[in-house]
Amino acid sequence: MPPHPDTWLRVLPQGLFCEPGDFYIDPQAGVHRAVVSHGHSDHARPDQAAVLGTPETLAIMTARLGEGRAGRTQQPLTYGHSIEQNGVRITLVPAGHVLGSAQVVLEWQGSRVVVSGDYKRQPDPTCEPFQPVACDVFVTEATFALPVFQHPPAQAEMKRLLESVALFPERAHLVGCYALGKCQRLIAELRRAGYERPIYLHGAQASMCALYERFGIGLGALLPVPRPAKRGETVLAGEIVLAPPSAESNPWSRRLADPVTAVASGWMRVRQRAKARGVELPLVVSDHADWPDLLDTIEEVGAPEVWVTHGREDALIYALAQRGVRGRALHLLGREEDEVEADVAEAVQAEAAGA
Length: 355
Fold this sequence. Notes:
Elements: E1 9-12, E2 15-18, E3 23-25, E4 34-35, E5 50-53, H1 55-65, E6 73-76, E7 82-85, E8 88-94, E9 102-108, E10 111-115, E11 137-142, H2 154-167, E12 173-176, H3 182-192, E13 199-201, H4 203-214, E14 222-224, E15 240-243, E16 260-264, H5 271-276, E17 281-283, H6 291-301, E18 305-311, H7 313-322, E19 326-329, H8 344-352
Parallel strand pairs: 3-4, 4-5, 5-6, 10-11, 11-18, 12-15, 12-16, 13-14, 13-15, 16-17, 18-19
Antiparallel strand pairs: 1-2, 2-3, 7-8, 8-9, 9-10
Helix pairs in contact: 2-3
């Protein structure tokens, strides 16, 4: 009989450790050997001695962390190919989260575990789609693991954005989004919607867009946000500007013509949260699976046991029990780059109660 995964995968302070393979998956600190699922900073930590990941993830780590801190030794592994480490077979398959994101498939002595990292099931023109893999244990995130989170199609949200641009031609539209993944997806979705004008970028967004284009992801005309020609003037009326979510409260934004503030995030489903932040145009665009997609994915991979991390573990584990699937909370440290705050659950509950 194959060994149960909890005999060879352990949760240590540094993260999830594969004991026979002698490596960590997405460790939270520098370790001797790491397999990294994708380039977001809560999964791709600096100062690893040796790092295995997709070529795209390794390039993202180098761009964000620098040559000296992105892993002293880097081992690229393309999707669908496998290597063995001390008898443990490692395969990376697409996760659909951001460019290069991967699920880590581990096989040892007849037992198979899929560590999904972060993933989504909605189509995304900037990364490979999620590939379900049958397994004995599926390790899933739970960022949006509450029934209230049901993400609309991204194209529907782009239609809302473009309708607002047409309605307020005298105003700029400042869209807060994360520099890795969300920014490039929004650009690609706008292009799919027929928007051919230049899209303006805060300086923090430019380097990742350039990296995506180096990997063959065309994004069209992108320009830096210009400075006003004269003191007191504003710029970019009628244009779309993509910037970090914090930019809306930064003096930098004063150069924009009476900006309509928007944020693209799955958390914008919580109306109270959008209102509290003063977001005029909340765009529900997420790079994570929503509640129905979490449940559908778990059913699709057919794992009798699911380990849950990074989010609302209790709700998902309860729902799985109703379906005859054993759930376990891993309680790994770390949080997603896509802004998680302690008040989200309270806001969701208040909204559900009609507050």
